[in-house]
Amino acid sequence: MARYAEPVPDYILELYAQGELPPEDMEALDRRRTADAEFADRLDQLRQSNEEILAAYPARAFAVAVEERRAGTAGKPWRWIAVAPAVAAAAALLLWVVPDEVVLLKGAEPKLEVYRLTGDVVEPLEEDAVAEAGDMLQLSYNAFGRPYGMILSIDGRGTVTMHLPDSVGQSTALDSSGEILIPHSYELDDAPDFERFYLILGQEPIPVSEILEQARRMAAASPRTLQLPEEYEVYKFAIRKKETSS
Q1: What pLDDT does residue 99 have?
Q2: pLDDT cut 90: percent of the chain above it
């Protein structure tokens, strides 16, 4: 059996198992599966786990609990999903070179996603989707290699809420292995008009207190605006709030 210096990343393994990689990459990993016993064993385990998940979840559910399996948190609430269509779409961004273990991302950029739980159904929201007070939301990010980041939101009253990290003193290092769900959900309050979520990324650790203070000053003047120094990448996801009758 051949020996490989680096393992295949989890999200590439997922795409390969689904047959969603480009043909040349599927063929390269077919060869690796034959030559690499560890890779073949991981693939078998993944397929078995997928079968168990699909048997446990109703057919109407659109989401597969990939993140729950990866995090080892089965049975805990609000540790959700990597959505199959989103994972499949990522295949168009990937180019594999094997056995040199090179992964190139073409056209890929970081992304902030928002999901809503309604009953026992998880739905991905579109930009500018309408939501209302009491809706339970879950955020996820895909850093695409950016090492550090934080997530905050600003509502129609100009209130700034930090979602990641959990506290000011925690590390802002990010997981770059694919779509990552933050470890808690968020219930929308009755602030009017909108809730805007921001994924803020940097090449160095993020000064959380400083960013929060800047966000609060700007929100007090104009809740719809967040401008940060050029060294940060900022990605926005806005939700419109349903008007409530008085």
Answers
A1: 37
A2: 31
